[in-house]
Design a protein that fits this description.
Helix content is 19%, strand content 21%. It is α/β, with parallel strands linked by helices. It has a 23-stranded mixed sheet, with no helix packed on it. Helix 2 (631-640) packs across helix 3.
């Protein structure tokens, strides 16, 4: 009986143990289930990625983004790129067995929970590419943590002094935040660290010499900060290092020769610092070097012939330094060399004749040096060269015949040299060339005797050469936007087929010997902004159809043999700003509208014109003072033309009335008792709306429909006192007519503020729709903004500056065209160097808009500190070349086929946001560049650095 009782007791105990274990497992599962549901409740999930996170539906181990271990414990939470938003719940760090948490590439915000260190099993934590703020987590003894990636957020403050407590870390990435202070020396206590990224912050001070103690380091990226002092010699002791990037700091002194000990180094980037002295000879012992970029420093001396030892080198960029001497012939022996950029130095001598023969060149830029000799015949031997930039040297001889067969060429700039000879028939048939500038040479010959078949051509500049003969009917391209054939000796007539260049924006034929009449067909080029036919032998009249060119801004017909009267409707071209018709045989009345109202006397001299308006700037005599040739002609005119006089009188009355309507009016409002000044810039508006109508609109940014002519307008109130200088600027803005600029119809001013009246554009603010736009729509908007800036900066006289260019100033209409709404400049997007208004500040603003179009990051966020950090962040992302980490998630599907174009646009954005204003491009270059690569099917390699374009 006792034996039976004992067995029964053993069974009871076993049952109890099993029950307790089962209960504990159920409790554990229940606890982790609750934690997961708590995490879900703290987030917004617009894409429905957490749709199956529902209790009792199935085991959470099968939920999207959850991975369990063999004991059904939550081991991994992987929710990268799910567009999740909200604050991160601290319950995320309460899972007892979780090893990996990846919430990167979302829209999470707020501070990182303080219980971060309670996750004792954690090995991998990635919270990058979100909107987290606050400070970095304090160093803690999380025993197993190996990867800590908090990059591309808005985390501020200093790097904790006890950062060394994360002793097991192998990867630390704090890049792309707004960290300040110096790099703590205690970071050297992380003895297992292999990858250290602190780039694109606001760190100061010197690079700690203690980094030399971290023997396992493979990658150091400290670029885009404000670090100073020299490069520590101790870095040369890191024998495992393969990537060293210290770009865009204020580092001084010479490059330490100890770097030559880094035998595993493949990437060395030191550009945009203040380094001096020569390139250490020891660097040429780094046999594994793939990319070497020392550009934008103050380095000097000659480029050593020892560079031939770098047989794995693919990219060599030494531009914008003070290097002297010759380009070493040993460069020609580098079989993998693809990119060679040595522009803006003081190099002399000839280009090595075998350059390109044994290389794999894709980009070659040697511009702005003192090079002589000929262009090497084998320069495109690899058949991969697509960018050839050699301008502003003293090169002579003919363009090599081999270039005529270089089918990979896309961008060719050989201007301002001493090249001679004729263009070969094959050279004018290169299929991919979209930008060709060979101006400022001694090239000659007839260009019409060969067939032009360049289907990709967008920009062609043959100016300032010795070409002669007639002009070809076509250049084989329907995409031609800029055509400059000026200052040659072309003769004959202007081809009527030029009217078929539907994309043409600029045509310069000045300084030739062209004759005959101006073809009426040119008016079919509806996109022409600048037309210069001056200094030729053209005759006949100005085509009246020119009045149909709605975006024409500059028209120069001076120094020809044109005659007849000026077409009256030409003065009604609202976009026309500059006109020069001097030294012709024009007679009769000068139009008293539009650009002719305040025309300078030098622009009309040498004709037989008179003025009919009140303006006196033209220096012309009033038409009424001209004497008749005889009395009988006067009486005959009176008898025969009395009816005509009555009609003219009526027209004059209408004209004077219109002028009065458009002139400045001072009236007293019956609504607020203030004295208002109102200026109309549109005759229809002056007839359709009144000041009382305008003052009756009580809210800014509101649509208003006038009862007369059902005219739609958009009103913006300026609740500040408008200085006289700004008021004059508004009057200048009112005369602007451009397809990418919203027309200002009227402006009102009182002592307490002002009102601007715009034409109403059906569309939405770019700031409201930017997050849902496709890549195709975004690039179209980018081009539209750039074209508007080009017009305002380059075609208006005086130039018009915006001063606060931002997405909220841009309307995207129904055709996805960008329409810039001008106003008084503010300081919303502040330029780093000053608050003033200039062309370069507008370019900086354009760069910020391009960054936002690409990344979805808003430079107006307070955490960025006046927009500086987002630029640094963008530079960091661009230098890393990981497109998927910085492109807006909605465009990732577009990136498959448009990666090069996206990278190129970021390249343009970073040039526009250069810290030195002088380093930023002009608006015309930005517009050309955006147009060219967006329309091109191939945009190159999307490399980190740009050439001198």
């Amino acid at each position: 009986m006792a034996s039976i009782g004992s067995k029964s007791c053993d069974k009871s105990i076993m049952f109890l143990i099993v029950f307790v274990l089962f209960y504990m497992q159920q409790c554990k599962c229940s606890s982790e289930l609750e934690l997961l549901l708590s995490v879900k409740s703290s987030m917004k999930d617009p894409l429905g990625s957490l749709h199956d996170w529902i209790p009792l539906s199935q085991s959470f181990c099968h939920w999207n983004g959850v991975v369990c271990d063999d004991l059904s414990n939550v081991a991994k939470i992987e929710l990268s790129g799910k567009n999740l938003s909200g604050r991160l719940s601290e319950t995320i760090f309460n899972f007892p067995y979780v090893e990996l948490i990846d919430l990167s590439n979302n829209q999470l915000y707020g501070e990182i929970p303080s219980n971060f260190s309670s996750c004792l099993a954690l090995r991998f934590l990635n919270l990058s590419n979100n909107n987290f703020t606050g400070t970095l987590p304090q160093g803690s003894r999380i025993p197993l943590l190996e990867t800590l990636d908090l990059s591309n957020n808005m985390i501020s403050g200093k790097i904790p002094e006890n950062i060394g407590l994360f002793s097991r870390l192998k990867v630390v990435d704090f890049g792309g935040n707004v960290l300040v202070g110096s790099i703590p020396k205690s970071i050297a206590n992380i003895s297992n660290l292999e990858f250290l990224t602190l780039a694109s912050n606001q760190l100061i001070g010197e690079i700690p010499r203690e980094l030399g103690l971290m023997k396992k380091l493979k990658l150091i990226y400290l670029g885009y900060n404000n670090l100073s002092g020299g490069i520590p010699e101790e870095i040369g002791e890191l024998s495992s290092l393969y990537h060293l990037d210290l770009v865009y700091n204020n580092l001084t002194g010479e490059i330490p020769s100890s770097l030559g000990n880094l035998t595993n180094l493949e990437y060395l980037f030191l550009y945009i610092n203040k380094l001096t002295g020569p390139i250490p000879r020891s660097l040429f012992n780094l046999k594994k070097m793939v990319s070497l970029d020392l550009s934008d420093n103050f380095l000097s001396g000659e480029i050593s012939t020892l560079i031939s030892q770098l047989q794995n080198l693919e990219v060599l960029q030494l531009f914008a330094n003070n290097f002297t001497g010759r380009i070493p012939n040993s460069l020609t022996s580098l079989p993998r060399l693809q990119v060679l950029q040595l522009w803006s130095n003081k190099l002399s001598g000839e280009i090595p004749k075998d350059l390109g023969k044994y290389n794999n060149l894709t980009i070659l830029d040697l511009s702005t040096n003192n090079l002589t000799g000929k262009i090497p015949e084998k320069i495109c031997y690899s058949n991969h060269l697509f960018k050839l930039i050699l301008f502003s040297n003293s090169l002579h001889g003919e363009i090599p015949s081999s270039l005529s067969h270089c089918k990979s060429l896309q961008r060719v700039r050989l201007q301002n040299n001493q090249l001679t000879g004729e263009l070969s028939p094959e050279f004018t048939k290169l299929p991919l060339v979209y930008f060709l500038d060979i101006s400022g040479n001694n090239l000659f010959g007839s260009i019409s005797e060969r067939k032009w078949d360049m289907p990709a051509l967008q920009m062609l500049n043959l100016a300032r050469n010795k070409f002669f003969g007639t002009l070809p009917d076509s250049f084989g391209s329907k995409n031609l936007e800029n055509l400059d054939l000026s200052e040659n000796t072309f003769y004959g007539t202007i081809p009527k087929n030029f009217g078929k260049l539907s994309e043409l924006m600029e045509l310069k034929l000045c300084g030739n010997e062209l004759s005959g009449e101006i073809p009426d067909e040119l008016s079919s080029c509806k996109k022409v902004v600048s037309l210069d036919l001056s200094r030729n032998r053209l005759s006949g009249q100005i085509p009246s159809s020119f009045s149909e060119m709605q975006v024409l801004s500059l028209l120069d017909l001076s120094m020809n043999q044109l005659s007849g009267e000026i077409p009256p409707n030409l003065g009604k071209v609202e976009s026309l700003v500059l006109v020069n018709i001097s030294h012709n045989h024009f007679r009769g009345n000068l139009p008293s509208t539009g650009a002719f109202l305040a025309i300078n006397s030098s622009a009309v001299v040498g004709n037989q014109l008179c003025r009919c308006g009140d303006e006196i700037t033209s220096g012309l005599p009033p038409c009424k003072s001209l004497k008749k040739s005889s009395i009988w002609l006067f009486f005959l005119t009176c008898l025969v033309g009395i009816l005509v006089l009555l009609v003219i009188s009526a027209l004059v009355v209408v004209f004077i009335q219109r002028r009065r309507e458009l002139k400045l009016k001072k009236v007293e409002s019956t609504q607020d008792g203030n004295n208002w000044e109102i200026q109309f810039f549109d005759s229809k508006a002056s007839k359709s709306i009144t000041l009382d109508d305008i003052l009756g609109i009580g809210v800014s940014y509101k649509r208003f429909y006038s009862e007369i002519n059902n005219m739609q307008i958009f009103v913006k109130k300026l609740n500040v006192n408008i200085p006289t200088s700004s008021w004059k600027n508004i009057q200048e803005l009112g005369n602007i007519r451009h397809p990418n600029v919203v027309k200002i119809l009227a402006a009102c001013k009182s002592e307490k503020g002002g009102i601007l009246v715009y034409e109403y554009v059906e569309g939405e603010n770019l700031s409201d729709v930017i997050r849902v736009m496709s890549w195709e729509r975004r690039q179209k908007v980018a081009i539209g903004i750039a074209r508007a800036l080009k017009y305002l900066h380059c075609s208006c006289s005086p130039s018009i500056f915006i001063g606060d260019l931002s997405p909220r100033k841009v309307i995207v209409d129904e055709k996805d065209e960008a329409r810039l709404r001008l106003s008084l400049p503010t300081t919303a997007y502040v330029v780093p160097e000053y608050n003033g208004i200039c062309k370069k500040s507008d370019i900086y603003g354009l760069g910020l808009v391009l960054i936002e179009l690409l990344t979805g990051r808003n430079p107006g966020d307070a955490e960025f500190g006046k927009g500086v950090s987002i630029v640094d962040w963008a530079r960091y992302c661009y230098s890393e070349c990981h497109l998927e980490t910085w492109i807006e998630p909605i465009m990732k599907s577009d990136a498959v086929n448009n990666q090069n174009k996206m990278v190129e646009m970021m390249n343009v954005a970073l040039q526009c946001t250069a810290s030195e204003p002088a380093s930023r491009p002009c608006a015309s270059d930005v517009a050309k560049t955006l147009d060219s690569f967006v329309r091109s099917n191939s945009c190159g390699l999307g490399l980190k650095r740009c050439s001198s374009v």
